[in-house]
Amino acid sequence: MEIRINGKIAMLKKGTSFEFVAENRLFSGSDGYTLSITFPLRHCRNNLDIFGHINRADVIAGKVIFDCEIRDRNFYKFGSITITEINDAEVKTQFLEGRSEQNFDVTFDDVFINELDLGGPTETTDSTPDKAWDPFINNMKCVALPWVNDYSGNIQNLADFHPEERNPDGTLKSHSYYSWNADCRGRSWQPYLLYITKKICEAVGYSADFSKWEEKEEYKYLLVCNTLPYAWDTAGFARALPHWTVAEFFEKLELFLGGEFTIDHRGKSVEFAFTDATLLATQPVQLDKVVDEHTVEVTVDDDKCEYQEAQNLVYKECDHEMWKFYSCDWFIKAWQKGAVRYATMRELLSANRWLATWNGSTSRGSNRDKLLYAEDVDAYFIVRSLSKTLVEKRDGWMPNRYQYKMELRPVNLFGGRIVDDSEDADEVEIEFVPAWVDETEDKYGRCLFLSFSGYDENDSTGTSWSRDPYQRKEEIDNTLYQPFAFQSLAGGERNKKAEYYDRIYVGWWDGAQMPNGKLPHPYVEDIEIAEDWSNFMNIHFSLRINHTTLNRRRTVYSINTRQKTTFKFLSDNIPNPRAVFFIKGKKYLCEKMTATFTENGMSQLIKGVFYPIVG
């Protein structure tokens, strides 16, 4: 066996041994690492050349990291080695590779994404609504879709629709078009998630390979809906992002995309791949040389198993008006036994279309007050009143007659992926959450809504202006502006989070618009129902995590978490722990494998912890 540290051959302490642990990152988030490796220093010139220059007083306070290679026949690992203890006689270290090395590095732990320079929009004076809403004109950088400020009720990026005009003889005089509303003095822009992620990499000096992400159109058009009003004069994209570190951003984004970012701090590069594609491309392993001795632990509960796919996956709860419709597992549980079920969405619409404009009359057998379900889209619906119009004013004791405009509202589309129904089940929260899209006035239709989570006005970036543009004008006129450096010093050391949003709101927008004169909005639901309930449209991208058949975060492998099995087997190398293992005629998923190394190399006897794959 050969160990090279910073390119130099290191000598192991005679008679020493260490264990190398190869973990499946779906369990622990780690890859490969060793337990303590001891290298002698006294009378060992090789190791003194490597470690002798270390200031031992500083070793205790900080992390000392070296490049390291371990070679032994078919075994090869390249990563980092870190000092854990050192004295005159010897140095104790730990080797880390892959995700273990990435987790250890603190390069991104004190860099916040909303404090980076991520640029902003470059709007031209002739930016018409059609151009501002077209992602291709802006090179997939950003768009300026209309949105409602939930605090003020004002529609930002508001545009008016002008229908086509025809001459008296019926010939076309002018095409339909949109123009900016007179109250829209400027635009506020929403960046694409892919663009922002690239800009974050660029801002920290890392190259990015997101080709796997770009290959999938449904992921390419994910839009970051976090936006600040134009009147606030904070056009930089970073200011609307949460106060997350760069490390947190990538960690949370992995969970949302169902993928993995490989961050090479040594080469300053970031690469992305989807987890399901990576696992499906991993060749299965047949373990033939299994030692007869093995153990099986059968437990009543599975709290010792940290397999990610065995945990409930939920979106982080939001406090906006639509969230009670977006995520309501409790309601489905309470009402689903009495749900009216249909084989297809078209059957559901056909049977209930008359409710789209309800005249207020009672009707026996009406589904107006029931939970509806369409099997082909695996979605539940309720009927929701949007508005009412007086159609007959009556005198005397008879109530006036109204006509109601009703909406067929999908419910619980963004409920959790529940694999454990117990009350104390572990939950993993996704902090990239579906944006709030809701009804506005009839002439505008559905629109993006945004509400702010709060902001520390004493942060280092300066004054947080009023949301009211007229009040803000008064504040500006009566305020002595101070440069940012002065504001930072005067504000003192910051303790609170400086953020307008505490999560990232996402939607999907490829620029395709319905020519109905309404305002465009990003898609969050995968079912778009016509106003008159005559038809529906399937959006080919879904933010759902609870769809039984089309779930884009479907579990790649289901395991029996209550049957932990330990096998010992003989091998010349450590197999890939992320592979599917065939052992004694059954399929298993590996949690981790451990091999013992001495100065003579790796022992062929390897111990592995496995769980049987079910389904």
In short:
The chain is an alpha+beta fold. The protein has 15 helices and 40 strands. The strands form ten sheets. It has a 15-stranded mixed beta sheet that branches. A five-stranded mixed beta sheet has the order 24-26-27-28-25. Strands 11-10-32-31 form a four-stranded mixed beta sheet, with no helix packed on it.
How would you describe what is shown here?
With 615 residues, the chain is of the alpha+beta class. The protein contains 15 helices and 40 strands. Among the domains are: 2-104 and 571-578 and 592-603, no CATH class; 113-165 and 179-280 and 451-491, no CATH class; 328-411 and 528-544, no CATH class. Helices cover 16% and strands 33% of the residues. The strands form ten sheets. It has a 15-stranded mixed beta sheet that branches. A hairpin with a 2-residue loop joins strand 38 (580-583) and strand 39 (586-598). The two termini are 42 Å apart.
Topology:
Elements lengths: L1 E4 L2 E3 L6 E7 L1 H4 L3 E3 L2 E4 L4 H7 L4 H4 L5 E8 L2 E12 L3 E8 L1 H6 L24 H4 L9 E2 L3 E3 L5 E2 L2 E4 L2 E2 L5 E3 L2 E4 L9 E2 L1 H11 L3 E3 L1 H5 L1 H4 L1 E3 L21 H12 L1 E6 L4 E6 H6 L4 E3 L2 E9 L13 E4 L7 H4 L2 H7 L4 E3 L2 H8 L4 E2 L13 E3 L4 E14 L8 E11 L15 E4 L1 E3 L1 E4 L6 E5 L18 H9 L6 H8 L12 E5 L18 E3 L6 E3 L19 E2 L3 E8 L9 E4 L2 E13 L2 E14 L1
Parallel strand pairs: 10-32, 17-20, 21-38, 23-29, 24-26, 30-33
Antiparallel strand pairs: 1-2, 1-6, 3-4, 3-39, 4-8, 5-8, 6-7, 7-8, 9-16, 10-11, 12-15, 13-14, 18-33, 19-20, 22-37, 25-28, 26-27, 27-28, 31-32, 34-35, 36-40, 37-40, 38-39, 39-40
